[in-house]
TrEMBL record:
Record bears the keyword Oxidoreductase: yes
Family of the protein in this entry: Belongs to the LDH/MDH superfamily. LDH family. Belongs to the LDH/MDH superfamily. MDH type 3 family.
Organism of this sequence: Fictibacillus arsenicus
SUPFAM superfamilies reported for this sequence: LDH C-terminal domain-like (SSF56327), NAD(P)-binding Rossmann-fold domains (SSF51735)
CDD domains, alphabetized: LDH-like_MDH (cd01339)
Catalytic activity entry: (S)-malate + NAD(+) = oxaloacetate + NADH + H(+); (S)-lactate + NAD(+) = pyruvate + NADH + H(+)
First-level EC class: oxidoreductase
Location of the active site: 180
Name of the molecule in the record: Malate dehydrogenase
Entry annotated with the keyword rRNA-binding: no
Residue ranges of domain Lactate/malate dehydrogenase C-terminal in the record: 152-309
Gene: mdh
A GO molecular-function annotation: L-lactate dehydrogenase (NAD+) activity
Pfam families assigned: Ldh_1_C, Ldh_1_N
UniProt entry keywords in alphabetical sequence: NAD, Oxidoreductase, Tricarboxylic acid cycle
Length: 312
């Protein structure tokens, strides 16, 4: 008898995809199908089998399989896209746009064909523009195509604040809006440690430095790794989104959403606070912004629009 566990497909079995598959399995969020190109079929099967062989030791029940055949993804509840190229030192995320847009179009056709009712979460960079590409190519409603950036950017901010104050990361909350680029907008005004506004605990000068480090957080890891980009924190961020959807949690989490008038933008995908639940993106939360915050968000939205123009 077939089991009733949720089915999650992860397209791209590289660093972020494989790490995401493993965490999804460890947390028993569902069965996982890891998909890569035919030339990578054996390594992908090998990674999946290796993860399965960790399950008796760690004590988790989840089938994790590797494949290059999209038929194996049929009927997925959620599909995560990590396929594509990653940047190297000296590159910006936007340098990846042409190659990755082509990959988005081809993988989206397959996803839609085999899982017409799924929710798609995009990770591939430049992620705001890639989320837009997948949305258009899929023909899905905007509730079922979202992108990941804000959980990761907020996690970096929270990490740096916890390091600064020598406090548990569990007590630090943050809020990062905008595109996933160096002009993203960490909203210090909406960030707390144990309910206390950060502005009461950290000097303006140190907070500015933390905001700047957050904005460049992806590049910091790229420079340290030398041949690829971050994957542990990105994978953990994807898993939080998948879990919110498959467990219908209605979590308040940032995601990249298609905007139709919210925050004054139309027809672009941008990181905003959202509610994620069983229907995918259930609501976009509109916050009041100060003039400075809105102008920083405008600048970030302009950067996303400039990348989207390349796609047109
Ligand atoms: N939005 C975000 O916050 C983040 C985005 N990223 C982005 O995620 C993407 C993946 O990063 P990594 O996993 O580190 O790269 P990676 O190079 O380790 O893995 C990418 C995988 O995609 C596969 N692939 C390429 N074309 C494919 C296709 N047509 N179908 C299926 N699989 C295909 C490759 O064979 C490779 O295994 C990059 O674009 C990176 O910039 C990475 C971290 C954070
Ligand atoms: O920096 C990159 O290229 C990968 C990424 O988006 C991140 O780690 O934030």
């Amino acid at each position: 008898m077939a089991n009733k566990r949720k089915k999650i497909s992860v397209i791209g079995g590289g660093f972020t995809g494989a790490t995401t598959a493993f965490i999804l399995g460890q947390k028993e969020i569902g069965d996982v199908v890891l998909v890569d190109i035919p030339q990578m079929e054996n390594p992908t099967k090998g990674k999946a089998l290796d993860m399965m062989e960790a399950s008796p030791v760690q004590g988790f029940d989840a089938a994790i399989t590797g494949t290059s055949d999209y038929a194996d993804t049929a009927g997925s509840d959620v599909v995560v896209i990590t396929a594509g190229i990653a940047r190297k030192p000296g590159m910006s995320r936007d340098d990846l746009v042409n190659t990755n847009a082509g990959i988005m179009k081809s993988v989206t056709k397959e996803i839609v064909k085999h899982s017409p009712d799924c929710t798609i979460i995009v990770l591939t960079n430049p992620v705001d523009a890639m989320t837009y590409t997948v949305l258009k190519e899929s023909g899905f409603p905007k509730q079922r195509v979202i992108g990941q950036s804000g959980i990761l950017d907020t996690a970096r901010f929270r990490t740096f604040v916890a390091m600064e104050l020598n406090l548990s990361v569990k007590d630090v909350t943050g809020f990062v809006l905008g595109g996933h680029g160096d002009d993203m907008v960490p909203l210090v005004r909406y960030s707390y440690a144990g309910g206390i506004p950060l502005e009461k605990l950290i000097s303006k000068e140190r907070l500015d430095a933390i905001v700047e480090r957050t904005r460049k957080g992806g590049g910091e890891i790229v420079n340290l790794l030398g041949n690829g980009s971050a994957y542990y924190a990105p994978a953990a961020s994807l898993v939080e989104m998948v879990e919110a959807i498959v467990k219908d949690q209605r979590r308040v989490l940032p995601s990249i959403a298609y905007l139709e008038g919210e925050y004054g933008y139309n027809g672009i995908c941008l990181g905003v606070p959202t509610i994620l639940g069983g229907n995918g993106l259930e609501e976009i939360i509109e916050l009041e912004l100060t003039v400075e915050e809105k102008s920083a968000l405008d600048q970030s939205a302009e950067s996303v629009k400039a990348v989207m123009k390349v796609l047109a």
